[in-house]
Protein backbone atom coordinates (compact mmCIF):
# COMPACT_ATOMS: atom_id res chain seq x y z
CA UNK A 1 0.00 0.00 0.00
CA UNK A 2 1.25 3.40 -0.84
CA UNK A 3 2.25 5.79 1.91
CA UNK A 4 -0.28 8.37 0.71
CA UNK A 5 -3.16 5.82 1.06
CA UNK A 6 -2.17 5.00 4.66
CA UNK A 7 -2.32 8.68 5.51
CA UNK A 8 -5.77 9.05 3.95
CA UNK A 9 -7.10 6.00 5.87
CA UNK A 10 -5.75 7.41 9.13
CA UNK A 11 -7.41 10.75 8.52
CA UNK A 12 -10.73 9.00 7.74
CA UNK A 13 -10.58 6.96 11.00
CA UNK A 14 -9.83 10.09 13.00
CA UNK A 15 -12.76 11.93 11.41
CA UNK A 16 -15.07 8.93 12.12
CA UNK A 17 -14.03 8.83 15.79
CA UNK A 18 -14.60 12.56 16.11
CA UNK A 19 -18.10 12.32 14.57
CA UNK A 20 -18.95 9.34 16.85
CA UNK A 21 -17.83 11.32 19.90
CA UNK A 22 -20.12 14.22 19.07
CA UNK A 23 -23.06 11.91 18.30
CA UNK A 24 -22.86 9.34 21.11
CA UNK A 25 -20.97 11.39 23.68
CA UNK A 26 -23.75 14.03 23.62
CA UNK A 27 -26.38 11.32 24.17
CA UNK A 28 -24.45 10.06 27.19
CA UNK A 29 -24.44 13.52 28.70
CA UNK A 30 -28.14 13.82 28.06
CA UNK A 31 -28.76 10.50 29.84
CA UNK A 32 -26.71 11.61 32.84
CA UNK A 33 -28.57 14.92 32.92
CA UNK A 34 -31.86 13.06 32.74
CA UNK A 35 -30.81 10.83 35.63
CA UNK A 36 -29.78 13.90 37.59
CA UNK A 37 -33.19 15.50 36.91
CA UNK A 38 -34.92 12.37 38.30
CA UNK A 39 -32.85 12.66 41.41
CA UNK A 40 -33.88 16.29 41.81
CA UNK A 41 -37.50 15.30 41.39
CA UNK A 42 -37.16 12.61 44.07
CA UNK A 43 -35.50 15.06 46.40
CA UNK A 44 -38.47 17.38 46.12
CA UNK A 45 -40.58 14.74 47.93
CA UNK A 46 -38.36 14.77 51.01
CA UNK A 47 -39.80 15.25 54.49
CA UNK A 48 -37.92 17.53 56.87
CA UNK A 49 -37.58 16.91 60.60
CA UNK A 50 -35.68 18.17 63.66
CA UNK A 51 -32.77 16.11 64.97
CA UNK A 52 -33.70 16.99 68.56
CA UNK A 53 -37.49 16.75 68.14
CA UNK A 54 -38.22 13.99 65.60
CA UNK A 55 -41.98 14.43 66.09
CA UNK A 56 -41.73 17.56 63.92
CA UNK A 57 -42.45 16.61 60.29
CA UNK A 58 -42.74 19.26 57.55
CA UNK A 59 -42.78 19.07 53.73
CA UNK A 60 -40.12 21.80 53.32
CA UNK A 61 -36.99 23.02 55.11
CA UNK A 62 -37.20 25.63 57.86
CA UNK A 63 -36.77 26.01 61.62
CA UNK A 64 -38.07 23.77 64.41
CA UNK A 65 -41.01 25.52 66.11
CA UNK A 66 -39.91 24.10 69.48
CA UNK A 67 -36.16 24.76 69.64
CA UNK A 68 -35.49 26.88 66.54
CA UNK A 69 -32.85 24.52 65.03
CA UNK A 70 -32.64 24.04 61.26
CA UNK A 71 -34.67 21.10 59.98
CA UNK A 72 -32.89 18.21 58.24
CA UNK A 73 -34.17 15.64 55.66
CA UNK A 74 -35.90 12.69 57.32
CA UNK A 75 -34.71 9.19 56.44
CA UNK A 76 -37.06 6.97 54.45
CA UNK A 77 -38.76 4.38 56.68
CA UNK A 78 -41.51 1.85 56.30
CA UNK A 79 -40.50 0.76 52.81
CA UNK A 80 -42.43 -2.16 51.40
CA UNK A 81 -45.58 -1.42 53.45
CA UNK A 82 -48.94 -0.14 52.31
CA UNK A 83 -49.57 3.58 52.62
CA UNK A 84 -51.89 2.99 55.61
CA UNK A 85 -49.48 0.65 57.43
CA UNK A 86 -46.75 1.44 59.97
CA UNK A 87 -43.92 -0.93 60.88
CA UNK A 88 -42.06 -1.01 64.20
CA UNK A 89 -39.06 -3.00 65.33
CA UNK A 90 -39.53 -5.45 68.23
CA UNK A 91 -37.09 -3.35 70.28
CA UNK A 92 -39.12 -0.18 69.68
CA UNK A 93 -42.33 -1.99 70.68
CA UNK A 94 -40.72 -3.25 73.89
CA UNK A 95 -39.42 0.19 74.84
CA UNK A 96 -42.80 1.80 74.14
CA UNK A 97 -44.71 -0.85 76.07
CA UNK A 98 -46.97 -1.64 73.11
CA UNK A 99 -49.54 -4.32 73.95
CA UNK A 100 -52.38 -5.72 71.86
CA UNK A 101 -55.76 -7.20 72.71
CA UNK A 102 -58.27 -9.22 70.72
CA UNK A 103 -61.58 -7.49 69.99
CA UNK A 104 -64.44 -9.05 71.90
CA UNK A 105 -62.23 -10.75 74.47
CA UNK A 106 -62.72 -8.00 77.09
CA UNK A 107 -65.44 -7.76 79.71
CA UNK A 108 -68.55 -6.39 78.02
CA UNK A 109 -70.78 -6.65 81.07
CA UNK A 110 -71.83 -3.23 82.19
CA UNK A 111 -70.43 -1.44 85.21
CA UNK A 112 -70.62 2.24 86.14
CA UNK A 113 -70.57 5.25 83.86
CA UNK A 114 -68.48 8.14 85.22
CA UNK A 115 -69.14 11.82 84.53
CA UNK A 116 -67.16 14.90 85.57
CA UNK A 117 -69.00 17.95 86.82
CA UNK A 118 -69.19 20.87 89.22
CA UNK A 119 -71.27 21.83 92.24
CA UNK A 120 -73.57 24.83 91.67
CA UNK A 121 -76.07 26.82 93.71
CA UNK A 122 -79.56 25.35 93.64
CA UNK A 123 -81.36 28.23 91.95
CA UNK A 124 -84.74 26.89 93.05
CA UNK A 125 -83.84 27.80 96.65
CA UNK A 126 -82.08 31.06 95.70
CA UNK A 127 -83.72 34.22 97.12
CA UNK A 128 -83.26 37.92 96.40
CA UNK A 129 -83.89 40.34 99.25
CA UNK A 130 -85.48 43.48 97.79
CA UNK A 131 -86.32 46.95 99.11
CA UNK A 132 -90.02 47.44 99.89
CA UNK A 133 -89.93 51.25 99.82
CA UNK A 134 -87.88 54.04 98.32
CA UNK A 135 -84.97 55.34 100.38
CA UNK A 136 -81.26 55.61 101.08
CA UNK A 137 -79.04 52.86 102.52
CA UNK A 138 -77.87 54.31 105.85
CA UNK A 139 -76.13 51.18 107.05
CA UNK A 140 -75.32 47.80 105.51
CA UNK A 141 -74.98 44.97 108.03
CA UNK A 142 -73.68 42.44 105.49
CA UNK A 143 -69.91 42.74 105.06
CA UNK A 144 -68.90 40.12 102.49
CA UNK A 145 -70.17 37.45 100.12
CA UNK A 146 -70.29 34.02 101.72
CA UNK A 147 -71.53 35.36 105.05
CA UNK A 148 -74.23 33.25 106.70
CA UNK A 149 -77.55 34.91 107.54
CA UNK A 150 -80.58 33.67 109.47
CA UNK A 151 -84.20 34.44 108.79
CA UNK A 152 -85.15 37.59 110.71
CA UNK A 153 -81.56 38.85 110.88
CA UNK A 154 -81.12 42.57 110.16
CA UNK A 155 -79.49 43.11 106.76
CA UNK A 156 -79.56 46.90 106.38
CA UNK A 157 -81.03 50.18 107.62
CA UNK A 158 -82.88 52.47 105.19
CA UNK A 159 -83.94 56.11 105.55
CA UNK A 160 -87.18 56.68 103.63
CA UNK A 161 -88.97 60.06 103.41
CA UNK A 162 -92.09 58.23 102.20
CA UNK A 163 -92.06 55.99 105.26
CA UNK A 164 -91.61 59.00 107.55
CA UNK A 165 -94.70 60.60 105.97
CA UNK A 166 -96.68 57.38 106.33
CA UNK A 167 -95.83 57.19 110.05
CA UNK A 168 -97.03 60.76 110.56
CA UNK A 169 -100.26 59.81 108.81
CA UNK A 170 -100.64 56.86 111.19
CA UNK A 171 -100.17 59.04 114.27
CA UNK A 172 -102.77 61.51 112.94
CA UNK A 173 -105.20 58.75 111.90
CA UNK A 174 -104.88 57.14 115.33
CA UNK A 175 -106.35 60.31 116.91
CA UNK A 176 -109.28 60.09 114.47
CA UNK A 177 -109.73 56.35 114.98
CA UNK A 178 -113.10 56.69 116.65
CA UNK A 179 -114.57 59.08 114.09
CA UNK A 180 -112.81 57.78 110.91
CA UNK A 181 -111.99 54.09 111.45
CA UNK A 182 -111.70 53.41 107.67
CA UNK A 183 -108.92 55.99 107.33
CA UNK A 184 -107.07 54.47 110.30
CA UNK A 185 -107.35 50.96 108.83
CA UNK A 186 -106.13 52.14 105.39
CA UNK A 187 -103.02 53.79 106.88
CA UNK A 188 -102.14 50.64 108.88
CA UNK A 189 -102.56 48.45 105.79
CA UNK A 190 -100.30 50.79 103.81
CA UNK A 191 -97.50 50.20 106.33
CA UNK A 192 -98.13 46.47 106.26
CA UNK A 193 -97.67 46.49 102.48
CA UNK A 194 -94.23 47.96 103.11
CA UNK A 195 -93.48 44.88 105.22
CA UNK A 196 -93.67 46.57 108.61
CA UNK A 197 -94.71 44.04 111.25
CA UNK A 198 -97.63 44.42 113.65
CA UNK A 199 -95.14 44.90 116.47
CA UNK A 200 -93.42 47.78 114.66
CA UNK A 201 -96.73 49.50 113.81
CA UNK A 202 -98.00 49.13 117.41
CA UNK A 203 -94.73 50.55 118.71
CA UNK A 204 -95.14 53.68 116.51
CA UNK A 205 -98.68 54.11 117.80
CA UNK A 206 -97.77 53.69 121.47
CA UNK A 207 -94.72 55.97 121.31
CA UNK A 208 -96.33 58.58 119.10
CA UNK A 209 -92.89 59.16 117.54
CA UNK A 210 -91.68 58.81 113.95
CA UNK A 211 -88.82 56.32 113.28
CA UNK A 212 -86.50 57.81 110.66
CA UNK A 213 -84.29 54.79 109.89
CA UNK A 214 -86.04 51.47 109.38
CA UNK A 215 -84.31 48.05 109.51
CA UNK A 216 -84.58 45.49 106.70
CA UNK A 217 -84.73 41.86 107.85
CA UNK A 218 -83.85 38.66 105.98
CA UNK A 219 -86.83 36.64 104.76
CA UNK A 220 -84.83 33.39 104.40
CA UNK A 221 -81.78 31.70 105.91
CA UNK A 222 -78.72 30.93 103.82
CA UNK A 223 -75.41 32.26 102.53
CA UNK A 224 -74.98 35.65 100.91
CA UNK A 225 -74.00 34.96 97.31
CA UNK A 226 -74.10 38.56 96.06
CA UNK A 227 -74.24 42.05 97.59
CA UNK A 228 -75.86 44.47 95.15
CA UNK A 229 -75.76 47.80 97.05
CA UNK A 230 -73.39 49.88 99.16
CA UNK A 231 -73.94 52.29 102.01
CA UNK A 232 -75.22 55.64 100.70
CA UNK A 233 -76.93 54.14 97.63
CA UNK A 234 -80.47 55.28 96.81
CA UNK A 235 -82.85 52.42 96.14
CA UNK A 236 -86.38 52.18 94.79
CA UNK A 237 -89.17 49.83 95.66
CA UNK A 238 -88.24 46.37 94.34
CA UNK A 239 -84.51 47.13 93.99
CA UNK A 240 -82.41 44.03 94.87
CA UNK A 241 -80.26 44.46 97.96
CA UNK A 242 -78.62 41.06 98.49
CA UNK A 243 -78.93 37.58 97.04
CA UNK A 244 -79.14 34.72 99.54
CA UNK A 245 -78.47 31.12 98.56
CA UNK A 246 -79.80 28.28 100.64
CA UNK A 247 -77.05 25.67 100.46
CA UNK A 248 -79.00 22.95 102.29
CA UNK A 249 -79.38 21.50 98.81
CA UNK A 250 -77.10 22.10 95.82
CA UNK A 251 -76.91 21.09 92.19
CA UNK A 252 -74.30 18.84 90.63
CA UNK A 253 -74.06 19.74 86.94
CA UNK A 254 -72.45 17.23 84.55
CA UNK A 255 -71.70 17.22 80.82
CA UNK A 256 -72.78 14.05 79.02
CA UNK A 257 -72.02 13.17 75.39
CA UNK A 258 -74.88 12.75 72.99
CA UNK A 259 -74.28 9.00 72.61
CA UNK A 260 -74.83 8.64 76.38
CA UNK A 261 -78.21 10.37 76.41
CA UNK A 262 -80.21 7.13 76.42
CA UNK A 263 -78.60 6.15 79.75
CA UNK A 264 -80.18 9.01 81.74
CA UNK A 265 -83.71 9.78 82.93
CA UNK A 266 -85.29 12.02 85.54
CA UNK A 267 -85.43 10.52 89.02
CA UNK A 268 -82.36 8.35 88.42
CA UNK A 269 -79.89 8.05 91.31
CA UNK A 270 -76.23 9.06 91.04
CA UNK A 271 -73.33 8.48 93.41
CA UNK A 272 -71.24 11.63 93.64
CA UNK A 273 -67.68 11.81 94.97
CA UNK A 274 -65.07 14.54 95.30
CA UNK A 275 -61.35 14.65 96.03
CA UNK A 276 -62.08 16.91 99.02
CA UNK A 277 -63.73 13.97 100.81
CA UNK A 278 -62.16 10.86 99.26
CA UNK A 279 -63.84 8.44 101.69
CA UNK A 280 -67.38 9.77 101.28
CA UNK A 281 -70.02 9.44 98.59
CA UNK A 282 -73.16 11.55 98.21
CA UNK A 283 -76.50 10.46 96.79
CA UNK A 284 -77.98 12.68 94.09
CA UNK A 285 -81.17 12.51 92.03
CA UNK A 286 -81.32 13.63 88.39
CA UNK A 287 -83.80 16.50 88.15
CA UNK A 288 -83.12 17.96 84.71
CA UNK A 289 -81.86 16.87 81.28
CA UNK A 290 -81.08 19.77 78.99
CA UNK A 291 -83.27 19.49 75.87
CA UNK A 292 -80.71 21.48 73.83
CA UNK A 293 -77.36 20.03 72.73
CA UNK A 294 -74.26 22.24 72.89
CA UNK A 295 -73.12 22.30 69.24
CA UNK A 296 -69.51 23.24 70.01
CA UNK A 297 -68.84 20.48 72.59
CA UNK A 298 -71.51 17.98 71.46
CA UNK A 299 -72.58 17.58 75.09
CA UNK A 300 -75.73 18.24 77.06
CA UNK A 301 -76.24 19.23 80.68
CA UNK A 302 -77.34 16.66 83.24
CA UNK A 303 -78.38 18.22 86.56
CA UNK A 304 -78.79 16.37 89.84
CA UNK A 305 -79.93 17.58 93.27
CA UNK A 306 -77.71 16.87 96.30
CA UNK A 307 -78.66 17.02 99.97
CA UNK A 308 -76.12 19.35 101.60
CA UNK A 309 -77.44 19.89 105.13
CA UNK A 310 -73.94 19.20 106.50
CA UNK A 311 -72.54 21.98 104.33
CA UNK A 312 -69.68 19.86 102.95
CA UNK A 313 -70.26 20.63 99.27
CA UNK A 314 -69.32 24.12 98.06
CA UNK A 315 -70.44 25.74 94.79
CA UNK A 316 -67.63 25.52 92.22
CA UNK A 317 -66.23 22.26 93.65
CA UNK A 318 -65.31 19.58 91.07
CA UNK A 319 -67.14 16.28 91.49
CA UNK A 320 -67.43 12.91 89.75
CA UNK A 321 -70.77 11.19 89.31
CA UNK A 322 -71.22 7.46 88.79
CA UNK A 323 -74.37 5.90 87.43
CA UNK A 324 -75.21 2.24 87.11
CA UNK A 325 -76.00 1.11 83.58
CA UNK A 326 -78.41 -1.73 82.82
CA UNK A 327 -76.66 -5.04 82.16
CA UNK A 328 -76.75 -6.59 78.70
CA UNK A 329 -75.62 -10.02 77.42
CA UNK A 330 -71.89 -10.02 76.61
CA UNK A 331 -72.40 -11.66 73.21
CA UNK A 332 -74.55 -8.83 71.81
CA UNK A 333 -71.81 -6.19 71.67
CA UNK A 334 -68.13 -5.84 70.80
CA UNK A 335 -65.97 -4.07 73.38
CA UNK A 336 -62.46 -2.61 73.45
CA UNK A 337 -60.45 -0.93 76.23
CA UNK A 338 -60.72 2.86 76.56
CA UNK A 339 -56.91 3.10 76.23
CA UNK A 340 -57.10 1.70 72.68
CA UNK A 341 -59.11 4.64 71.34
CA UNK A 342 -57.71 7.98 70.20
CA UNK A 343 -60.39 10.62 69.80
CA UNK A 344 -59.85 13.76 67.74
CA UNK A 345 -63.26 15.26 68.41
CA UNK A 346 -64.22 14.61 64.80
CA UNK A 347 -63.41 10.92 64.59
CA UNK A 348 -62.28 7.99 66.75
CA UNK A 349 -59.39 5.80 65.61
CA UNK A 350 -57.64 2.62 66.70
CA UNK A 351 -54.56 0.76 65.43
CA UNK A 352 -55.20 -2.74 64.09
CA UNK A 353 -52.52 -5.46 63.81
CA UNK A 354 -53.50 -7.41 60.64
CA UNK A 355 -51.01 -10.24 61.29
CA UNK A 356 -50.26 -11.06 64.94
CA UNK A 357 -46.87 -12.49 63.92
CA UNK A 358 -45.65 -9.17 62.42
CA UNK A 359 -45.08 -5.79 64.10
CA UNK A 360 -47.15 -3.99 61.44
CA UNK A 361 -50.14 -1.80 62.32
CA UNK A 362 -52.67 0.23 60.39
CA UNK A 363 -55.00 3.00 61.49
CA UNK A 364 -58.73 2.45 61.30
CA UNK A 365 -61.66 4.74 62.09
CA UNK A 366 -64.36 3.30 64.34
CA UNK A 367 -67.78 4.37 65.55
CA UNK A 368 -68.10 4.19 69.32
CA UNK A 369 -71.02 3.41 71.57
CA UNK A 370 -71.22 4.12 75.28
CA UNK A 371 -68.24 4.11 77.64
CA UNK A 372 -68.94 1.71 80.48
CA UNK A 373 -66.47 0.73 83.21
CA UNK A 374 -63.43 1.68 81.09
CA UNK A 375 -64.70 -0.17 78.02
CA UNK A 376 -66.07 1.30 74.79
CA UNK A 377 -68.83 -0.46 72.86
CA UNK A 378 -68.08 -0.69 69.12
CA UNK A 379 -70.90 0.20 66.74
CA UNK A 380 -68.88 -0.29 63.53
CA UNK A 381 -65.31 -0.45 62.22
CA UNK A 382 -64.07 -3.63 63.91
CA UNK A 383 -64.90 -7.32 63.87
CA UNK A 384 -64.61 -9.93 66.60
CA UNK A 385 -61.22 -11.63 66.64
CA UNK A 386 -59.19 -8.70 65.25
CA UNK A 387 -56.11 -7.62 67.19
CA UNK A 388 -55.73 -3.95 68.15
CA UNK A 389 -53.19 -1.91 70.13
CA UNK A 390 -54.45 -1.52 73.71
CA UNK A 391 -51.39 0.11 75.32
CA UNK A 392 -48.82 2.38 73.74
CA UNK A 393 -51.37 3.63 71.19
CA UNK A 394 -50.00 7.18 71.16
CA UNK A 395 -46.47 5.84 70.57
CA UNK A 396 -47.62 3.86 67.52
CA UNK A 397 -49.42 6.96 66.25
CA UNK A 398 -46.28 9.08 66.75
CA UNK A 399 -44.26 6.52 64.76
CA UNK A 400 -46.84 6.72 61.97
CA UNK A 401 -46.51 10.48 61.87
CA UNK A 402 -42.71 10.24 61.76
CA UNK A 403 -43.00 7.96 58.73
CA UNK A 404 -45.50 10.26 57.00
CA UNK A 405 -48.29 7.66 57.29
CA UNK A 406 -51.96 8.10 58.07
CA UNK A 407 -52.37 8.97 61.75
CA UNK A 408 -54.81 10.43 64.23
CA UNK A 409 -54.12 14.04 63.23
CA UNK A 410 -53.01 13.31 59.67
CA UNK A 411 -55.97 11.70 57.94
CA UNK A 412 -54.42 11.82 54.47
CA UNK A 413 -50.98 10.53 55.45
CA UNK A 414 -49.12 13.62 54.18
CA UNK A 415 -46.19 15.12 56.05
CA UNK A 416 -47.31 17.17 59.03
CA UNK A 417 -46.29 18.39 62.44
CA UNK A 418 -47.51 16.54 65.54
CA UNK A 419 -47.77 17.49 69.15
CA UNK A 420 -46.19 14.46 70.80
CA UNK A 421 -42.89 14.77 72.64
CA UNK A 422 -39.73 12.97 71.70
CA UNK A 423 -37.77 11.85 74.68
CA UNK A 424 -34.69 10.75 72.83
CA UNK A 425 -32.57 13.87 73.31
CA UNK A 426 -30.24 14.36 76.27
CA UNK A 427 -29.66 17.66 78.06
CA UNK A 428 -27.20 18.38 80.86
CA UNK A 429 -28.10 20.64 83.79
CA UNK A 430 -26.30 21.69 86.96
CA UNK A 431 -27.36 20.27 90.33
CA UNK A 432 -29.21 23.43 91.38
CA UNK A 433 -31.22 23.59 88.13
CA UNK A 434 -33.85 21.15 89.41
CA UNK A 435 -34.73 23.42 92.35
CA UNK A 436 -35.04 26.46 90.08
CA UNK A 437 -37.13 24.55 87.54
CA UNK A 438 -39.47 23.42 90.32
CA UNK A 439 -40.19 27.06 91.14
CA UNK A 440 -40.98 27.80 87.48
CA UNK A 441 -43.14 24.67 87.40
CA UNK A 442 -45.11 25.88 90.44
CA UNK A 443 -46.05 29.11 88.63
CA UNK A 444 -46.72 27.13 85.41
CA UNK A 445 -49.28 24.95 87.23
CA UNK A 446 -51.01 28.07 88.57
CA UNK A 447 -51.01 29.49 85.03
CA UNK A 448 -52.58 26.26 83.82
CA UNK A 449 -55.32 26.55 86.47
CA UNK A 450 -55.99 30.15 85.40
CA UNK A 451 -56.50 28.96 81.81
CA UNK A 452 -58.84 26.24 83.11
CA UNK A 453 -60.89 29.01 84.75
CA UNK A 454 -60.65 31.14 81.55
CA UNK A 455 -59.22 33.97 83.66
CA UNK A 456 -56.94 35.98 81.33
CA UNK A 457 -55.83 38.45 84.03
CA UNK A 458 -54.85 35.67 86.42
CA UNK A 459 -53.01 33.90 83.58
CA UNK A 460 -51.01 37.09 82.88
CA UNK A 461 -50.10 37.33 86.56
CA UNK A 462 -48.71 33.79 86.86
CA UNK A 463 -47.01 33.92 83.44
CA UNK A 464 -45.20 37.11 84.52
CA UNK A 465 -44.10 35.49 87.77
CA UNK A 466 -42.88 32.36 85.94
CA UNK A 467 -41.02 34.53 83.41
CA UNK A 468 -39.11 36.27 86.22
CA UNK A 469 -38.17 32.90 87.72
CA UNK A 470 -36.97 31.73 84.29
CA UNK A 471 -34.55 34.70 84.18
CA UNK A 472 -32.84 33.24 87.28
CA UNK A 473 -32.94 29.78 85.70
CA UNK A 474 -30.90 31.07 82.73
CA UNK A 475 -27.99 31.96 85.06
CA UNK A 476 -27.51 28.29 86.00
CA UNK A 477 -25.12 25.98 84.19
CA UNK A 478 -26.52 23.86 81.35
CA UNK A 479 -25.64 22.77 77.82
CA UNK A 480 -26.66 24.62 74.65
CA UNK A 481 -29.73 22.45 74.03
CA UNK A 482 -30.96 23.03 77.59
CA UNK A 483 -30.44 26.79 77.23
CA UNK A 484 -32.41 26.75 73.94
CA UNK A 485 -35.44 25.21 75.64
CA UNK A 486 -35.21 27.53 78.66
CA UNK A 487 -35.14 30.55 76.35
CA UNK A 488 -38.19 29.22 74.51
CA UNK A 489 -39.99 28.83 77.84
CA UNK A 490 -39.17 32.43 78.71
CA UNK A 491 -40.35 33.61 75.28
CA UNK A 492 -43.78 31.96 75.54
CA UNK A 493 -44.24 33.03 79.19
CA UNK A 494 -43.44 36.60 78.20
CA UNK A 495 -45.98 36.42 75.37
CA UNK A 496 -48.73 35.14 77.69
CA UNK A 497 -47.98 37.85 80.29
CA UNK A 498 -48.52 40.56 77.65
CA UNK A 499 -51.64 39.13 75.98
CA UNK A 500 -55.14 40.04 77.12
CA UNK A 501 -56.95 37.50 74.93
CA UNK A 502 -57.48 34.08 76.52
CA UNK A 503 -57.34 32.48 73.04
CA UNK A 504 -53.89 33.97 72.33
CA UNK A 505 -52.66 32.87 75.75
CA UNK A 506 -53.83 29.32 75.08
CA UNK A 507 -52.05 29.31 71.69
CA UNK A 508 -48.71 30.14 73.36
CA UNK A 509 -49.42 27.67 76.15
CA UNK A 510 -49.21 24.83 73.57
CA UNK A 511 -45.49 25.26 72.83
CA UNK A 512 -44.74 26.45 76.37
CA UNK A 513 -46.00 23.07 77.60
CA UNK A 514 -43.98 21.20 74.96
CA UNK A 515 -40.75 22.73 76.26
CA UNK A 516 -41.71 22.27 79.92
CA UNK A 517 -42.43 18.57 79.30
CA UNK A 518 -39.16 18.06 77.42
CA UNK A 519 -37.07 19.53 80.27
CA UNK A 520 -39.14 17.76 82.95
CA UNK A 521 -38.36 14.39 81.37
CA UNK A 522 -34.61 15.18 81.48
CA UNK A 523 -34.46 15.74 85.25
CA UNK A 524 -33.90 12.99 87.81
CA UNK A 525 -37.06 13.82 89.73
CA UNK A 526 -39.16 16.82 90.65
CA UNK A 527 -40.37 15.66 94.05
CA UNK A 528 -44.01 15.23 93.00
CA UNK A 529 -46.06 13.03 90.74
CA UNK A 530 -46.82 14.90 87.50
CA UNK A 531 -49.07 13.82 84.65
CA UNK A 532 -48.70 14.64 80.97
CA UNK A 533 -52.24 15.09 79.68
CA UNK A 534 -53.44 15.42 76.10
CA UNK A 535 -56.43 17.13 74.46
CA UNK A 536 -56.95 15.83 70.90
CA UNK A 537 -59.09 18.83 69.88
CA UNK A 538 -56.74 21.60 70.97
CA UNK A 539 -54.56 23.61 68.57
CA UNK A 540 -57.12 23.36 65.73
CA UNK A 541 -57.56 19.59 66.12
CA UNK A 542 -53.79 18.95 65.98
CA UNK A 543 -53.81 18.03 69.66
CA UNK A 544 -51.84 19.58 72.51
CA UNK A 545 -50.39 18.49 75.85
CA UNK A 546 -49.95 20.02 79.28
CA UNK A 547 -48.53 19.14 82.71
CA UNK A 548 -50.85 18.60 85.66
CA UNK A 549 -50.27 17.74 89.31
CA UNK A 550 -53.75 16.16 89.48
CA UNK A 551 -54.83 12.97 87.79
CA UNK A 552 -58.26 14.44 87.06
CA UNK A 553 -58.54 16.05 83.62
CA UNK A 554 -59.12 19.82 83.77
CA UNK A 555 -58.62 21.13 80.24
CA UNK A 556 -56.72 24.46 80.00
CA UNK A 557 -57.39 24.83 76.25
CA UNK A 558 -61.20 24.93 76.53
CA UNK A 559 -61.91 25.52 80.22
CA UNK A 560 -65.44 24.92 81.47
CA UNK A 561 -66.87 24.37 77.97
CA UNK A 562 -64.92 21.10 77.63
CA UNK A 563 -63.47 20.67 81.11
CA UNK A 564 -63.00 16.90 81.10
CA UNK A 565 -61.89 16.52 77.47
CA UNK A 566 -58.52 14.76 77.38
CA UNK A 567 -56.56 11.80 78.71
CA UNK A 568 -53.32 10.97 80.52
CA UNK A 569 -50.67 9.90 78.00
CA UNK A 570 -47.51 9.98 80.11
CA UNK A 571 -46.10 10.91 83.50
CA UNK A 572 -42.97 12.68 84.74
CA UNK A 573 -41.18 10.63 87.45
CA UNK A 574 -41.03 11.92 91.03
Q: Could you describe the 3D structure shown?
A:
The chain is an alpha+beta fold. It folds into six domains: 1-45; 47-75, no CATH class; 85-111 and 328-402, conserved putative lor/sdh protein from methanococcus maripaludis s2 fold (Beta Barrel), CATH 2.40.420.20; 112-122 and 247-324, Beta Barrel (Elongation Factor Tu (Ef-tu), domain 3), CATH 2.40.30; 124-245, Beta Barrel (OB fold (Dihydrolipoamide Acetyltransferase, E2P)); 433-572, no CATH class. The protein is built from eleven helices and 28 strands. The strands form six sheets. Strands 4, 5, 20, 21, 22, 23, 24 and 25 form an eight-stranded antiparallel beta sheet that branches. β21 (342-343) and β22 (348-353) form a beta hairpin.
How would you describe this structure in keywords?
single chain; 574 residues; alpha+beta; conserved putative lor/sdh protein from methanococcus maripaludis s2 fold; 6 domains; eight-stranded antiparallel β-sheet; six-stranded antiparallel β-barrel; 28 strands
